[in-house]
Amino acid sequence: MTTPNFPETKETSFEDPFYHSNPQWRLRFWAIFSGQSLSLVGSALTQFILLWWITDTTGSIATLAIAGTAALLPQALINPLGGTFADRYSRRILMIVADTISGLCMLVLIALFLTERIELWHVFTMMFIRSTMHAFQMPAASASVAMLVPSSFLSRAAGLNQTMQGMTLVSAAPLGALAMSVMPLGWALSIDVFTALLGCLPLLIYRIPQILTHSRAGLSGIWGEFKEGVNATLD
Questions:
Q1: Do residues 161 and 32 make contact, with C-beta atoms less than 8 angstroms apart?
Q2: Taking each helix axis from N to C terminus, what angle separates 218-234 and 61-88, rounded to the nearest 10 degrees?
Q3: What's the CA gap between 64 and 66, in Å, rounded?
Q4: If I label 157, which of 34, 73, 125, 149 is the partner at 20 to 30 A Cα–Cα?
Q5: Is it true that domain 23-234 has CATH number 3.30.200.20?
Q6: What's the distance, CA 5 to chain centroid?
Q7: For 157-174, how does the pLDDT look when each residue is reduced to its tens digit (9 = 90+)?
Q8: 120: closest CA among 72, 51, 199, 169?
Q9: Over the stretch 119-136, which tens digit does the pLDDT of each residue have?
C-alpha cells in the first residue's frame, strides 16, 4: 500500500524576502486564519447543540457520556497522527479535506433532523467522524501559522492562535444557545456548513509555504513518526 501523493509546495523560510517586499502576506495570513477560526467555532457551536439535543431527548447521563466520548476520544487519540500528516503532506489539502468531510457530515445530520428520521447512532457516528477530522485539521492549521508570517510577526501569530483556540471553547455554549433560540435545530446546525465553506475558501485562493518531510517513506515511516509524537506528548 502506498501513501497518498499530495502536491508538494515550495519550501520557504521565515526570512523569505517576499515577506519584507510584499505586504500581501498580511492579507493571506488573516484570510486563512479567520477562515479556520470561523470553521473551528462553527464546529464547537454545533457540537454543543448536538450534546444539548441528546441530553434533552434522552435525559440519560450514560448516553451523554457516550456522545462526549464519540466527540472527544478520536481527537485525543489521533492528534499525534494528525501532526505526522501535517509534516509529511500538504497542510492546505489536509485542512480542505477535513473541512469538507465535516461539512458533509453536518449536511447528513441536517437532512435527518429536517425529515425527522434522526437516531442516536446517527449523531454518535457523525460526531466520531468530525472529531477524527478535527484531529487532522488542528495540527495542520497550527503548523501553518509559522509559515504564513515573517519572523518579526511569529510570536504575535502564535499568541493569536492560542487565543483563537481558547475563544473556541468559551464561545461554543453561548453561541450554540443563541442559535437554538432563534432558529429550528436543523437549521442551527447549518451554521457549521457555512463556516466550513468560509474555512475552505481562502485555502482555495492562497498557497501555504511548507517544508515537506519525507525522511521515511511508506506506512512504516508514518507509524514511526506517530510513535515519536506520542512519546513526546507523554514526556
A1: no
A2: 120
A3: 5
A4: 73
A5: no
A6: 21
A7: 888 888 887 888 788 888
A8: 51
A9: 999 999 999 999 999 889
